[in-house]
Amino acid sequence: MEEIIGKIVLCLVIALLLGFLIGWLFSKALGSQDNHKDDALFDELDSKLDSKLSIELAELEVKYEKEKAMVAEYSMKNRELKGELMKKISLLESTSNTLKNLQTDTMTNQDKSSTFGANQIRELKNLLDKKNRELLEFESVLIKAEETINELKNTK
Q1: Position 34 confidence tier, pLDDT thresholds 50, 70, 90
Q2: How confident is the model at residue 112, as a pLDDT?
Q3: Residue 123 class from Cβ within 10 Å (0-12 exposed, 13-18 middle, 19+ buried)?
Q4: Domain range for residue 136?
Q5: Within this chain, do residues 107 and 133 fall inside the same structural domain, yes or no?
Q6: What DSSP state is assigned to residue 113?
Q7: Which of the 8 DSSP states describes residue 1?
Q8: What would the mean pLDDT of 100-125 be, rounded to a whole number?
């Protein structure tokens, strides 16, 4: 009986080893086919990626050239604007000098016509006093009108 059990155990171990060996061989055979498929897929994806990257690189180069041209254009425009600014500054300085000269001339003319200006100032002060009196009168009329309105509201 022990001999039969030993033979059965031995057959089971041999079957186990044989099954393992066959499974391992099948996995190698199928795995190599999958690897070839994966390699082909990887190569295809790699070529797509390379073409996509080359397109993006070309687009970036075009964009770089456009921006480079734009920088050159703006630097030229900047030089032109600086030249115009310098012209305007010199014009402003000459105008400022002219205004200073006119101011000094005006001051000397004002000294000559100070009596005329004093008379005008007196007339303007008189007009201002007259307008102030009229405003005070108008204000007093408005205050009286408000008081009358308030009295009429209170009597109702």
Answers
A1: low
A2: 65
A3: exposed
A4: 119-156
A5: no
A6: T
A7: -
A8: 78
Averaged pLDDT for residues 127-154 = 85
Enter the tokens of residue 58: 């070309």
Asked if 75 and 135 sit in the same domain, the reply is: no
What are residue 9's phi and psi, to 5 degrees? -65, -40
Task: State how far the Cα of 146 lies from the Cα of 4, in Å rounded to an integer.
Answer: 133
144's tokens: 């009286």
What pLDDT was estimated at residue 60?
Answer: 93
For the whole model, what pTM was predicted?
0.36
Residues in the chain: 156
Give me the sign of the Cα torsion angle 103, 104, 105, 109: positive
Domain count, the chain: 2
What gap in Å lies between CA 42 and CA 144, rounded to an integer? 100
Q: Provide mean pLDDT across the span 69-82.
A: 92
Contact 117, 110 (CB under 8 A): yes
Asked if 29 and 66 sit in the same domain, the reply is yes
User: Tokens 């000098």 sit at which residue?
Assistant: 97
